[in-house]
Amino acid sequence: MSCSSKFVYSKDYATYRFSDDHPFNQMRVELTYDLLKESGALKDEDIVSPRYATEEELALFHSREYIEAVKKASVGDLSEEEGFEFGIGTEDTPMFKGMHEASSLIVGSTLSAIDEVMQGRTDHSLNLGGGLHHGFERRASGFCIYNDGAVGIKYLQKKYNQRVMYVDTDAHHGDGVQWAFYGDPDICTFSIHETGRYLFPGTGYVNERGLKEGYGYAFNLPIDAFTEDESFLDVYESAFRKIAAYFKPDIIVSQNGADAHFYDPLTHLCSTMKIYERIPALTHELAHEHCGGKWVALGGGGYDIWRVVPRAWAQLWKVMKDQAPFEGELPATWLEKWEPEAPFSLPHTWHDPDGSYKKIPRKPEITEKNAKTLKAAMQFINNQIHYN
C-alpha cells in the first residue's frame, strides 16, 4: 500500500501534568518521539505542529458550563465543592494550573491530525498526545479532562460529514466516546478491553449495543484478566474485520492505548509487544480497504512509560509509514540518554523475550471465556447484517 503519514507533536504536551507522582505522564510522548528520531524513522518533514482547540470546538461535545468550570480550575478559582460536580479535583483528575490550556492543546492536536487527513495532505496522521477517552460532556473522568476523541468525531461530522468508525484497544473501556455517540447511527464504536469486573470504568459489556437509532452501532469485547497475545489478537481481528465490513466507514479513528502489556501497573492483561505490531497493522489494512486509507490514530493509556509505551507507539508509527516493524536492538544512543533517568533497567530489544512473565495457569479457561465473548458479539453482528 502506497501511503503517507504525518506525526502531530508538541513539547507542550508535557503541560498536561497532574502531579509528579500521578500515573498519567506525557513524558511518554517525548520518549517515543526521541526513540523514533534516534531510530531514523521520524523525519522533520513528517512532523506537524498542532494548534489549540477553540471554545467553540470544545463545545461540539462538552457543555459550556463544564468548559467554564475547567477554565476556573485552570486559574485556581474553582472550589472543591464546585469541582466535585464536574469530576474535577478528584484523586484521578486533580486540578492543576493551566489545565484548560493544556487540555485544549490535546484536543487541538487531534483536530490538526484530522485536518491533515481530510484536507488531503496525508493518508494517515498520528497524535500520541490524544486518546483521552474517559471524558464526558460535563464531567472529567479517569485522567481525562476534555475528550479529544469525542470532540474530533463531532468535528468530522460537522465539518466533513463523515461516517466514523472509532476503534479503541486500550485496556480500559472507551466509555466517554461510546456514550457520546450511543444513539448515533453514523458513528460506530468498537472497544476491546479488560472486563469491567476488575477494572475502571466498570463498563463495556457485550450487551452495550447502542440506543434508539444508534442501536447496533456500539460493540464491545470485554476480555478476561490475564489474557495473552494469541487470544487478544484472535478475538480482536475476527470482530474488527466483521464490524468494519458491516459499517463501511468513511474514516477510522483509532485509540491506541499501550496498557494491555504485562508490565503495565494499572491493568491485569498479559500481552507482549507482539500485539502492538498487529493492532495497527489491521487498522492500516482496513482503512485502505474501506476508507481510501483515511486513518487518524491517537494515543491513550499506558503507564509503564519507560519499558512499554515508547516501543509500542514507535511500532504504531512504523505501521503508519507502511514500513516493516522494528526488529533487534533498540538504538544505543536512546538507551544511553534515558537509562540513567529510568527507575529500572530499560529493555534493550524491540520485542519481549520468551518467558518474560510467569506462565498463566488459567490460559485455556481464559481463552475459552474470550471465545464465548467473541461468539456473542459475532452473533449480534450477524443479526444486524441480516436485519439491515
UniProtKB/TrEMBL annotation:
UniProt-listed CDD domains: HDAC_AcuC_like
Which residues are in coiled coils? Answer: none
Pfam families membership: Hist_deacetyl
Keyword annotations for this protein, in alphabetical order, are: Acetoin catabolism
Gene3D superfamilies the record matches: Histone deacetylase domain
Q: Which InterPro entries match?
A: AcuC, HDACs, His_deacetylse_dom, His_deacetylse_dom_sf, Ureohydrolase_dom_sf
Pathway(s) served:
Ketone degradation; acetoin degradation
Residue span(s) of domain Histone deacetylase: 22-319
Q: Which SUPFAM superfamilies match?
A: Arginase/deacetylase
Belongs to which family?
Belongs to the histone deacetylase family.
Question: What name does this protein carry?
Answer: Acetoin utilization protein AcuC
Write down the species: Salimicrobium album
